[in-house]
Design a protein that fits this description.
The complex is a heterodimer. Chain A is α+β, with helices and mostly antiparallel strands. Helix content of chain A is about 50%, strand content about 10%. Chain A is built from 13 helices and 6 strands. In chain A, strand 3 and strand 4 form a beta hairpin. In chain A, helix 3 crosses helix 5. Chain B has one domain: Divalent-metal-dependent TIM barrel enzymes (TIM Barrel, Alpha-Beta Barrel), CATH 3.20.20.150. The longest helix of chain B has 18 residues. Chain B is α/β, with parallel strands linked by helices. In chain B, helix 3 links the parallel strand 3 and strand 4. Classes of the chains: A alpha+beta, B alpha/beta.
């Protein structure tokens, strides 16, 4: 029955024909019609959820191409999770292997998929206890910080953050863009960051010590040490205010996430809310 | 049967489903609602707004968990990662019982995200009852299984749906979440008498009722949860209360959701049918 359900709607598959023989039909409702109620329901449910998760991708490729892409992806990648929240988990990998479904917008579509998956992860990712001000004041050379699980740094080639908010694609030439997708006060936001910031954030995400992450970020930089120090200070201060950091699992201990807010709430007016 | 071991010996009255569209009004106005039912899977997450809202709701209301992904009837083993998350949520909500459906929905590690009907066979009873027992032992909370609304039955079924439901509940020693609308929907789709169904349910195992609206497409009825409760379902509900007694009742409204006031007004109609 599962095989019959997951076959695309338009396809007449042998599994459905075989299954129709074991389903009790009636004069009012034949067995094949009974099966098709389940099949249609399966596809409407998944496509609705998929459309809700990837509105930006639909804006880039267009409605018809989006439906072709969604059906092909969902047929090739049946859900392996108890929740439909994870339907798009394998979409980036699948789209890389199947570029024809996005046509000449493949690169922009891939960027959008990464942004939209990060949006899902940011919405309900874990929020671990925040560092205290004293953690920073007592920081030594081995000081270690991690990115909160809901914080997703992304390197992009197209301004898909703007497109998703506008729900339409605009003409743009590819260029290096760094965006962080994160959650603040239960809302998901996108924030553009500089290339040196994204390098530090990526390094912290990968578990590097703070000193090493900073050194790595400014490796080929022409900024003076004073300017580097000022930029780093400003960045970490902002990231702490935005709640992007935590001390790492081993040091979070028994801290509760609501009793260790380190800094005053920041002004979120300059951030782009991700609807 | 107002209170029994399958609903934690509680006496809940009329509840409604907790839905995103009503979050703000509930938290700002705190309307009198006896209890809320949550879809467990919506809160089996690591963080963010849904859990934050749930905690605020729990501070003021009683919450019962209802699941859609346990798939007791699937032949593969219970998903341990799922159960661990569910248990964490059970501890958070302190739900006196949980419910899920008498169905299957996954095979070979793939999920249909649907509630698929089982063949009513001895083999299916064995599998389903064993998995319900395993889940209950792990979760340490009473479990009630819900009858489906269905659109297909299998030729090789060996018994009626109500015999199947009763036997599974007996062998698993679990409760029954009797969905009155589902009985009606399936009775129309398969041509049986809904009162016969109702009259053959073991009264002592009923932990909870569900009521809901459906959509009539002529040839068949779909369990859409997007309308008020239909009159024949109310009549069947009245018969259920008469036979079983006042029981925790939940109005499901999941699509085209109206205002909270409308949902509550529809739910509270149950009081008059329960008295009638």
């Amino acid at each position: 029955m599962m095989q019959a359900l997951v076959a695309p709607l338009a396809v007449s598959d042998p599994a459905a024909k075989k299954l129709a023989h074991v389903i009790q039909g009636s004069r009012r409702l034949r067995a094949s019609m009974r099966l098709s109620i389940y099949k249609r329901s399966y596809w409407y449910r998944l496509l609705d959820s998929f459309r809700e998760d990837f509105p930006g991708l639909q804006a880039i490729v267009g409605e018809k191409a989006f439906m072709r892409l969604a059906q092909a992806y969902l047929a090739a990648t049946p859900s392996k999770s108890f929740t439909m929240r994870n339907l798009g988990e394998g979409l980036e990998r699948w789209l890389r292997a199947n570029p024809k479904y996005a046509g000449n917008k493949h690169c922009a579509a891939l960027d959008m998929v990464r942004l939209e998956w990060a949006d899902i992860e940011a919405f309900d990712g874990a929020g671990l206890p925040l560092p205290r001000e004293s953690d920073f004041l007592n920081a030594g050379p081995d000081f270690s910080l991690r990115l909160q699980p809901h914080v997703r740094p992304l390197r992009l080639s197209y301004p898909v953050d703007d497109w998703r908010i506008a729900r339409r694609m605009k003409r743009a030439n590819p260029k290096d863009i760094a965006v962080v997708v994160y959650r603040l006060d239960n809302s998901v936001y996108y924030r553009r960051v500089s290339m040196y910031e994204i390098r530090i954030l990526e390094s912290l995400q990968q578990g590097e010590k703070v000193a090493s992450a900073i050194s790595h970020a400014f490796q080929d930089c022409v900024f003076s040490p004073e300017k580097q120090a000022r930029l780093v200070g400003e960045s970490f201060s902002l990231w702490a205010q935005l709640g992007w950091l935590h001390l790492g699992d081993e040091r979070n201990g028994n801290r509760s996430s609501d009793s260790s807010v380190a800094f005053q709430q920041c002004d979120v007016g300059s951030h782009a809310p991700a609807f | 049967m107002p209170a029994n071991q399958f609903n934690g010996f509680t006496q809940y009255n009329i509840g409604i489903g907790l839905r995103t569209a009503h979050y703000t009004q509930i938290l700002e106005q705190r309307p009198p609602v006896d209890w809320f039912e949550i879809i467990s899977e919506n809160y089996m997450i690591d963080g963010g707004r849904p859990l934050d809202i749930l905690d605020q709701i729990l501070a003021h209301y009683r919450v019962i968990q209802h699941g859609v992904s346990m798939y007791f009837g699937s032949t593969e083993p219970l998903n341990r990662a799922y159960l661990k998350r569910l248990k964490a949520l059970v501890r958070r909500t302190k739900t006196p019982w949980i419910s899920d459906h008498l169905c299957w929905g996954s095979a070979d590690g793939c999920y249909s995200h649907d509630l698929l009907p089982l063949p009513y066979t001895e083999e299916a009873i064995e599998i389903t009852a064993r998995k319900i027992r395993e889940a209950r032992d792990f979760l340490e909370v009473p479990i009630a299984v819900e009858n489906l609304s269905s659109y297909a039955e299998f030729k090789h079924s060996e018994m009626t749906e109500w015999e199947f439901l009763s036997e599974v509940a007996e062998r698993a020693d679990c409760g029954i979440l009797l969905d009155i609308n589902n009985i009606y929907v399936s009775s129309r789709n398969h041509g049986f008498d809904p009162l016969t169904y109702l009259n053959n349910i073991p009264v002592e195992r009923v932990a909870q009722f569900h009521i809901a609206g459906h959509s009539d497409y002529g040839q068949y009825i779909l369990d859409t949860h997007d309308h008020p409760v239909a009159d024949p379902v109310w009549q069947l509900y009245a018969a259920a209360v008469k036979r079983i007694g006042p029981t925790a009742t939940l109005l499901e409204w999941d699509d085209n959701i109206p205002s909270l006031d409308e949902v509550l007004a529809e739910a509270h109609k149950a009081k008059s049918y329960a008295i009638a």
